[in-house]
Structure formats: structure tokens, C-alpha cells
Amino acid sequence: MSSLLTREEYQALAGSLTLPTGAFIDGRACAVASGDTFDTINPASGAVLARIASCGDAEVDLAVAKAREAFEDGRWSRAHPSERKKTLIALCKLIRRNQHELAVLESLESGKPILEIETVDIPEALHCLEWHAETADKIYDQVAPAGDDAVAMVVREPIGVVGCVLPWNFPILMLAWKIGPALAAGNSVVVKPAEETSMTALRIAELAHEAGLPRGVFNVVTGEGPVTGKALGLHPDIDMVSFTGSTEIGCRFLEYAAQSNMKRIVLECGGKNPCVVLDDAENLDIVAQHVVQAVFWNMGENCSSNSRLIVDAKVKDALIERILHRMRDWRTGDPLDPVNKLGAIVSKSQFDRVLGFIEAGKTEGATLVAGGGAIEGSGGYFIEPTIFDGVTPGMTIARDEIFGPVLAVITVNGFEEAIAAANDTKYGLTASVFTANVRRAHRAARAIRAGTVTVNCFGEGDITTPFGGFKQSGFGGRDNSIHAHDQYTELKTIWLDVSDADVEDSID
Ligand code: NAD
Ligand code: MN
Question: What separation in Å is there between the alpha carbon of 95 and the centre of ligand 2?
Fold first, then answer.
């Protein structure tokens, strides 16, 4: 892993970077016909960083046409699997070589702390890309038990042209989660980054071509959701869209598919994830550490954030005391200063939205025990890590995904009440359970309706385990693991008649 730089070194790097601002189609940066642009903002200062090309139908059509051309002529889709592996590994080397530059680009646009980008986001993105690259020449197809007169092969083939619609909360990592399995399987991709965070996807597309990826295989169309994202969703020549973002917009993609060509849709959407602490939880100091990490990591801008703490009345006061103690380690400030674990909220609108939820918590009668407002002074969008106690199930902060550093504490009595509270949500992405009793741990893990349940820790599993949601947290597939590979492929049956005519004759 590359070592951290100092704040001054990161600032110097920020000042010297060339910011990528154009769409990337058919292996090169390209101008947008209309000349339209939109501003990308540094949320740590509120200043405009750059103007990004706003792609319309013309650019989306061109990117899809180039992706289709590449797919059909086989320059990548039918390249030898070991070639695909080598190229993706070469991309990882280039990402590593440019890690500090990518980390600064990511931090400038998103407000994410450089410490996290350097130590979590980029290492995990590399691990993901390498893992999927290695699958390219290691996954075997199947031969069905169809008897001696036929050879029935069940094979996986790349699905074709894949649209990847990305969120702003983990721009590099979510890009890796999608292009890793999509490219390893031989697809062509058209990536649409979130409008808040376009630059690292553009830079990684450049690096991919430097690594030898053929042109047309990895295109990036920058632009706003209702324009560029919608054009991808409705495009008649896109075979699949993989989307991460809000449940509301995820549902739009189901409509787009129905209105166009029945493209495959895979959605990874919101969460209102419970952290369940039972009365027999061991070592509340450690539990507090996990609770704080689970809710405040990435400023709470995380679909797997445990934003509901469901805690047994017997241990609540002791746990809250330890949580308040642990929060002191979480310094908020300049994202380019590696002493800070928390940075800025991604945009003015998200900042206003989170402050609106904090106001709702206050007016609906929850008890504020930490934080509760903006951090003034920098011109940027910083919010204090905030905790509300006395939250009841009907309150807005108990129900809605906040996507900010706000914890709602819900007090329960006993196991059954805890599980019922955990499942009292339209979402079902992740959950954590803390208990010393293995029987209760397992019963809770089975009873909670969520795609990932962690026991005595907070987490999302790792690259080897599928990630995605039950209920309105997800649709149609899973990221990570071999299951991610499956979702970017079609199953084909090839049935070969090998019956022996002479043998048939002799039977007659
Ligand atoms: P969003 O769902 O609007 O955006 C996600 C992606 O969809 C972006 O690339 C965006 O450009 C695109 N998009 C937006 N509107 C579109 C449309 N009409 N047609 C096609 N594409 C469209 O998310 P947001 O507005 O940035 O954030 C709002 C809320 O969504 C957040 O507060 C949070 O609750 C949730 N969210 C969840 C995740 C997640 O990881 N699950 C990520 C981002 C946001
Ligand atoms: Mn939106």
C-alpha cells in the first residue's frame, strides 16, 4: 500500500492536477456537441472546481454505438480470457502508480477524507478489480447430465453492452464493483458517474486504455441524472443497467426498461440498517467502537450505514456513554488533512437534506445527545456527528434513509422486540447483531430480513461474499463474489446431438 502524504503535500498535488472534464468515448476524451456543461463543486469549500461536459442523446448514442461495435467484433468480448485478465491487472498497476492523484481527485469532488480514500476505498477497489480479473480464466462452464446421446453444455456469455449508473458516495469503489465483473466477463461498458463526482471515473477510463484495454470497451458519459442517466435507461441497444443509488431512482430504471427493450436491471439501493445490541452483548467498549464506525463512516453517506441503534433497555445507558467517548476519535475537518476521519457532506442539497432530518428529529420529540447542527466557518458543507436518543418507530429519523452522520437510538425490551424493530422498515440491505449467546446470534441473523447480517461486528462482508438487499434495498442481483459475475452474463444451453444412427437402426 502506498503511504500517506502530508496535508501540505496533498494540497500541492491538488493545485497541480489536470482535471479531466470531458466525456470519454471510443478510447479518447471527446467534446460534447451541444457545448453544455455543469459545475462540479468542492464541498469542503463550496468553490467551483471545474465544468464537466453534459452529455445528451448524441453522446450517449455514440458511446453505445462504439461499445456495441467493440462487443460485436470481439476485440474484448472474444479476447482470450487470460488476455482480459492481464489487461485488468495492468490497469490495477496503473491505479496503484497514480493512487495519490486519484485520491486527491476523489476527495476534492466528494468531500471524502483522504485518509479513508487512501486506506480503504482505493485498496478495496484494487482488490475487487484483481479478484474479478483472476476469475476471467478460472471460471468453468457446465456439462448437463443429458445422457449419452447428447452433449448439453450450459455456458455463460457476456450480456453485451452494460450501462453502469454510479452514486457519489464511493465513486472509485462503486466503479470497481461494476466494471470489475462486467469487463472480466467480456462486456463493453458505458459508465455514467454521479454528477457530483465525475473525475475519477474519467481518469480511470484513461488509465484503462493506457493499460491496453481496446477502445470502445470502457466509455464514460458524464452528465445529469434526468438527462444522461435517463438516456441510458431508455436506450434500445443497452442490454443491462447496473445502478447504485436511491430506491426512488432505482424504480425509474425498472420503468425505463419496460418502456424500451426489457434490458436487465440490477439495483443496489437504499438502507435503514439496524444495529441490534442485546442485553448480553459482551464488551460494550468494543460494541461502541463498531456502532460509531457503522453510522459515521463516510459521514454516514453509506447505504450500509447502521443508522438505527436498537438497544436493550438494560444496556442502553452504559452503551451510549461509551459511544460518546468513542466519538471523540472522529475528527471532522479538511478532507485533504489525513488527521481527519470525517470530511464534508457531498453537496449543498445533501447538506440541506441532512439538516432537515436533524430538524425533524428535534421537532418530533427525540432527545439530542450529541451534535445536532452544521459546523460553520469553512464555507464548506460540514455536519457534526449527531445522536438522537428516545427515538420511536414512527419518527421520520427512524424510517427514512438520511445518508448523513445521524444515529437514531431506539430502546427495546428483549429479543423479540429487538427483532421486530429491526424488521420494521421497507429496506433490507444490512444489519448487525451484538450478543454473547451463539444461539440468539444465529436466530437473530436468520430472523432479520437483510442481504448481509454481521454478528459482533459491523461490516459488509468482503469481495468473496455477495452484497445486496432484500425488500426495497435491491433488485435483480448482487455485487461482489462470483454472483456478481453471473449477473453480467447470459446463460446459454448448447445441445449437441451425438446419437449414433447405426445404433438407433439396430434397435429398431
Ligand atoms: P440518485 O439516486 O438520484 O442518483 C444516483 C445516480 O442516478 C446518479 O448517477 C444520478 O445521476 C442518476 N440519476 C438521478 N436521477 C435520474 C433519473 N431521473 N434517471 C436516470 N438516472 C438518474 O441519488 P442522489 O439524488 O444523489 O441522492 C439522494 C439519496 O439517494 C441520498 O440521500 C441517499 O438516501 C440515496 N443514495 C443512496 C446510495 C446508495 O449507495 N445506495 C447512493 C447515493 C444516494
Ligand atoms: Mn437525485
Answer: 29
Active centre residues (catalytic): 268, 303
Extract the C-alpha cell encoding 355: 439538516
* Beta strands 430-434 and 474-475, pairing class: unpaired
Over residues 279-285, mean pLDDT = 98
Between β-strands 406-412 and 308-312, what pairing exists: parallel, antiparallel or unpaired?
A: parallel
Closest CA to 196 of 233, 231, 166: 166
Per-residue pLDDT tens digits for 115-135: 999 999 999 999 999 999 999
96, 196, 199, 295, 355 from 214: Cα distances, Å = 21, 28, 21, 41, 46
Q: Which residue's entry shows cell 471460471?
A: 139
- Helix or strand or coil: residue 108? helix
Average pLDDT (285-295) is 98
CA distance 215 to 211: 11
Ligand nearest the Cα of residue 221 is 1
In Å, how far from its chain's centre is CA 162? 16
pLDDT digit string, tens, across residues 143-160: 999 999 999 999 999 999
- Which amino acid, residue 123? P
The rounded Å distance from CA 71 to ligand 2 centre is 31
Q: Exposed, middle or buried, 267 (CB in 10 Å: 0-12/13-18/19+)?
A: buried
Asked whether 234 lines ligand 1 (CB < 6 A), one says no
Helix (H) or strand (E) holding 266: strand 264-268
Distance, CA 361 to ligand 1 centroid (Å)?
A: 23
Cα 472 to Cα 474: distance, rounded to the nearest angstrom: 6
Which residue is associated with the grid cell 454472483? Answer: 483
The three-class DSSP label of residue 140 is coil
Give the burial class of 443: count Cβ atoms within 10 A of its Cβ; 0-12 exposed, 13-18 middle, 19 or more buried.
Answer: middle
DSSP secondary structure code for residue 457 in this structure: S
Beta bridge partners of 266: 242
3-state secondary structure of 62: helix
Mean pLDDT of the chain: 97
Residue 217 has pLDDT above 90, yes or no: yes
Residue nearest to atom 35 of ligand 1 (CA): 246
Q: Which residues pair with 492 in a beta bridge?
A: 155
The CB density around residue 248, as the number of other CB atoms within 10 Å, is 10
pLDDT > 90 in the chain, percent: 97
Place of cell 468494543: 286
Q: Which residue has the higher pLDDT, 33 or 217?
A: 217
